[in-house]
Automatic annotation (TrEMBL):
Pumilio repeats lie at residues 126-161, 289-328, 330-365, 369-405. This is PUM-HD domain-containing protein. GO terms for molecular function: mRNA binding. Keywords: Repeat. GO terms for cellular component: cytoplasm. Pfam families: PUF. InterPro entries: PUM-HD, Pumilio_RNA-bd_rpt. The lineage of its organism: Eukaryota, Sar, Alveolata, Ciliophora, Intramacronucleata.
Length: 577
């Protein structure tokens, strides 16, 4: 810490040399006193300069000691100066709000990566004494949220204590309310770390006062109640739902109605949203009572500027039981009058989208197309033409044809106004686009997919491999048969040499002619063998049927001549005998 007496020890600044001379040399003044030692001008200047230099040296020593103390605090083994630099850069321009958006994001990122010592230094230096001011700031409230989320528990509790001590001032501020919501979210996850702070917040929320009742319909304060409905445990949630139950479609002494208010309806929407997640039966029964009350009053709510969003929320995020009751018992009977209303037409569109095909079919058959007058009223209305267009999009082909037939009939009779013409153009363009889309989809479906093409290519490769293997096997069989034929030819030549002495000249000529014919056949088969090898290399199928026919002919002729030879042998033996 700086010495408080340092400022008093700094010498007076001389404005000019003349002033310095007059202050240090009183002999030049009008005094009549006897001149002393200090009246010497040179000695006076020496004394003043020594005093000035002594004070400067003392300031330098204190400045060095402060720097050493700061280094001892910050320069640790895991020191990272980026977080402190980010805060210093931001705080230097804090009042002018220069570069705050960029600096705020940088500080959040640096805070996530900083060590505990650095976080502690930043919190004690920049945050601790400015929590309320920072929570109201457009950019710096994000730093508080980040500390609450990932900072140490003691820092989080210090922030929450100061925030909840000034809750009435901060709850209607947009940025401070976000800090509260983040604190509520973290406290609900880790309630044991912030027991006093959490209890202080619960006591405030569950207290029914004029101030809290005003917050139900406040633009900003309403958000903290929606967040409470989302994160409260069963016991506190039950108490909060009991409070809201008094002000939702119920008569009360304060004439407060949340369902028709611009911001109060958001609380009802949140109750609808959390209902499927509720487990406690008592809490669920209270929420169910609120939702059923809105369903019974749906005919009125769908025509209100803000309450119609409650019915839309039921259609979009409500449970199936509530949705079925609403659609089957209320909305389908009230569809025509609802569609003709400015706000009800929005609900009618949501009903068509989320109702399901059976409900839309029933709606078309029993309400819309039941008479030409009702259909004409809907298509020609400035509000109802929108849900009718939406209904056309979700109808089946059969009902679309009926829809277009009714429109053409009204068009031919000149019963369509400007809005009806828009519906006609929309339906025709949508019909043609639908047909074109179906045609494209059919073509796309007929085209093989990439996987199918890949499988087909693999199948073709497999079939080619099978054919090649078959050709190789048949070629081996063919070579074996050729070898047998060569052996038969060799055996016939041997028989010729042995039996030539027993044959007559005419028989020898016939036998030679047979051998010549057999030789020609062998030559032809060798030529076909070469062609077969070439066709196998080109992966072409070899004509084995022709080869087998030639081979059968050759075998029959060989067998025939072999029998003749046997007959000749027997005849010669008989002659010799």
């Amino acid at each position: 810490m700086l010495n408080k007496n340092v400022s008093n020890q700094i010498p007076i600044e001389f404005n000019s040399d003349q002033d310095e001379f007059h202050q240090c040399n009183p002999s030049k003044s009008d005094s009549t006193a006897t001149p002393g030692l200090n009246d010497n001008s040179n000695s006076s200047k020496i004394i003043c300069s020594q005093l000035f230099e002594h004070n400067l040296n003392q300031d330098d020593d204190e400045f060095d000691s402060l720097n050493k103390q700061l280094s001892d605090v910050l320069l640790t083994d895991s020191y990272r100066p980026s977080l402190i630099q980010a805060f210093s850069a931001d705080m230097s321009s804090y009042l002018s709000h220069e570069k705050l958006t960029k600096n705020s994001r940088k500080m959040q990122q640096e805070y996530e990566q900083a060590n505990n010592k650095e976080r502690g230094y930043v919190f004690n230096t920049y945050i601790k004494n400015n929590i309320i001011i920072l929570s109201l700031d457009k950019y710096m409230h994000y730093i508080l949220e980040k500390i609450i989320e990932i900072g140490p528990s003691n820092f989080k509790n210090i922030i929450l204590d100061q925030i909840f001590n000034s809750i009435k001032k901060l709850i209607t501020d947009l940025h401070a309310c976000k800090v509260m919501q983040k604190g509520l979210e973290i406290m609900s996850e880790y309630p044991q770390e912030s027991v006093p702070q959490y209890q202080k917040y619960i006591n405030f929320i569950l207290e029914e006062t004029n101030f809290t009742r005003k917050l139900y319909t406040d633009k900003i304060g309403n958000q903290i109640f929606s967040k409470s409905l989302e994160v409260f445990e069963e016991r506190n949630l039950e108490s909060l739902l009991q409070i809201f139950n008094k002000y939702i479609l119920n008569h009360n002494q304060y004439s407060l109605e949340l369902s028709t208010d611009q911001y109060g309806c958001l609380i009802v929407n949140k109750i609808i949203d959390i209902f499927p997640k509720l487990l406690d039966q008592k809490t669920k029964s209270i929420a169910n009572e609120i939702i059923m009350r809105t369903i019974h009053n749906s005919s009125c709510l769908i025509r209100r500027q803000y309450a119609n969003y409650i019915i839309q929320q039921l259609l979009e995020k409500g449970s199936e039981n509530h949705k079925r009751v609403l659609l089957d018992n209320y909305l389908i009977k009230d569809f025509i009058s609802m569609s003709l209303d400015k706000y009800g037409s929005n609900v009618a569109e949501k009903a068509i989208v989320y109702a399901g095909s059976q409900w839309r079919q029933k709606l078309w058959e029993e309400e819309v197309s039941i008479s030409e007058s009702s259909f004409r009223k809907l298509v020609n209305d400035q509000f109802a033409n929108y849900p009718i267009q939406r209904l056309y999009e979700y109808l089946t082909i059969e009902y679309r044809n009926e829809f277009i037939a009714l429109l053409n009939r009204l068009h031919d009779s000149h019963f369509l106004n400007h809005h009806g013409q828009i519906v006609l153009k929309f339906s025709l363009s949508n019909y043609n686009a639908k047909r074109f889309t179906q045609k494209i989809n059919a073509n796309e479906n007929s085209k093989p997919t990439k996987q199918q093409e890949k499988n087909k290519q693999l199948q073709q490769v497999y079939e080619k491999q099978q054919k090649i293997q078959q050709n190789q096997m048949q070629y081996q069989q063919y070579l074996q048969q050729q070898q047998m034929m060569a052996l038969q030819h060799q055996w016939l030549q041997q028989q010729q040499q042995q039996q030539s002495q027993y044959l007559s000249p005419i028989e020898i000529q016939q036998y030679q002619a047979m051998l010549l014919q057999q030789t020609m056949l062998m030559y032809q088969q060798q030529q076909q063998n070469l062609q077969f090898q070439q066709s196998s290399m080109n992966q072409q199928q070899f004509p084995f049927s022709q080869q087998f026919q030639l081979q059968d002919q050759l075998n029959q002729q060989a067998l025939k001549y072999y029998q003749q030879i046997q007959n000749f042998q027997k005849a010669n033996q008989n002659k010799q005998e």
